[in-house]
Write a structure and sequence with these properties.
heterodimer; A: alpha/beta; 11-stranded mixed sheet; 3-stranded antiparallel sheet; 14 strands; globular; B: little secondary structure; about 10% helix; binds iron/sulfur cluster
Amino acid sequence: MIHKYKLNGYNIVLDVNSGAVHVIDDVAYDILDLVDESLGETISQNKLVKLKEKYEEDDINTAYNELYSLYKDEQLFSSDNYEEYAKMMTNAPIKSMCLNVAHDCNLRCEYCFAAKGDFGTGRELMSLDTGKNAIDFLIQNSGTRHNLELDFFGGEPLMNFDVVKEIVKYARSIEKQYNKNFRFTITTNGLLLDDDKINFINEEMSNVVLSLDGRKEINDKLRVTPNGKGCYNAIVENYKKLISKRGNKDYYVRGTFTKHNLDFTKDILHMYELGFKQLSIEPVVSDPNLEYSIREEDLERVFQEYETLANEIISRKKKGDCFNFFHFMIDLDQGPCAIKRLRGCSCGNEYVAVTPNGDIFPCHQFVGNSNFKMGNINNSNIDHKIKKTFSNANIYSKESCKNCWAKFFCSGGCNANNFQFEGNILKPHRIACELEKKRLECAIMVKAATL
Amino acid sequence: MKHIKTLNKVNLKKSIIKGGCGECQASCQSACKTSCTVANQKCEK
Ligand code: SF4
Ligand code: SF4
Ligand code: SF4
């Protein structure tokens, strides 16, 4: 399978199964319109005649020969023999955990998927005992995996920061003994950041995600305090301080775009001008009936905006003045292995989320849906039926992914969104797919333009 | 080549042989966490 497209003056071909990417000229592009997956050594007469209406015979033949040599090298129309590996890693150890230390929040963002912080189940903070049990659970269930990840999430995790600190301390005190290496991350809305928390985060957390939607008027429209005031002024200085003291460690300033800011390139550039270099802005995931939702009819506009952003990145890169936009970061040479690409997030299998009272769910987006409860950390049994169901979710068990050109980059999308919108974790949500594919096309084009 | 410029020399298939060790970061693809594509992830091997 190949995917070819024209963007920004580049003719790009992705060979799906090998991962090879080629930039080709018009003759080669038009030849690919006429051939099927098994190339012969030379081009057939009727195809040649057709192409000669537009191109010189010599050119057609050399272009064909070049395509043929890629084909022989398995860099074009390479075969798909991944399905037999799709069963690998079913029943893998659990190595990654989202710890919802606070089902409470000091903001009331309109689009919050966690029902304004409490996941619809009442405001609650995690106790240190439950936190420690979560660490023990992760160590016990991680088999031979050395690197374990723990993401402090909420609600707003800074509302329970003393417990966060103690959990980190506890994990550090036992990781060597079990031959584990904990990597902590945290996602925060920034309101409660002070020097002490900043120092702790910069010391212990390998990544920190800082929420901000961009321009003040955009951010303050939906990211509001319980009394309706925008949070921009309160958080931007905190982020600047945190980042200035962070050295080379990873961070992301991440935003959400909605129908209100389909011109989100401006928000990215605004954040860049604030001095933030690692940026991300992502489409809101919400009920299509809400006024700020991204709907089918908005797709064209969003596509256009991704192109605008891509061009902005290209022109800045050329000037050596650069920022990273998370969604366009793509490693064409040494990304993850094919096995990992078969199932992406691996939620409910390698990854679970834990609520303040210790309940275990396949991931943070399933929290609160009792049909998906996998057990409780405090008695450490888990429901292997649910784990098995999730471990079977991969790009070959999802009908629409099997034949999708983006499958090895997308890995089958988000199971939680699939469930939310289509009622089935194996049924990709169309809008999400279209956005993902457009981002990939842009990301590859940016590579082509800046190599 | 005159008509084609290849941007990368990869073969995803080869990655199967040493792959699947599970040591890399989990990659949430959703909009609520910043990760999205697995394509930007580092392999730990
Ligand atoms: S660390 Fe590399 S080889 Fe191991 S599962 Fe991740 S991507 Fe694959
Ligand atoms: S874009 Fe959609 S169909 Fe394609 S791999 Fe991703 S989830 Fe599957
Ligand atoms: S199901 Fe979706 S939200 Fe949950 S971990 Fe996977 S990609 Fe992320």
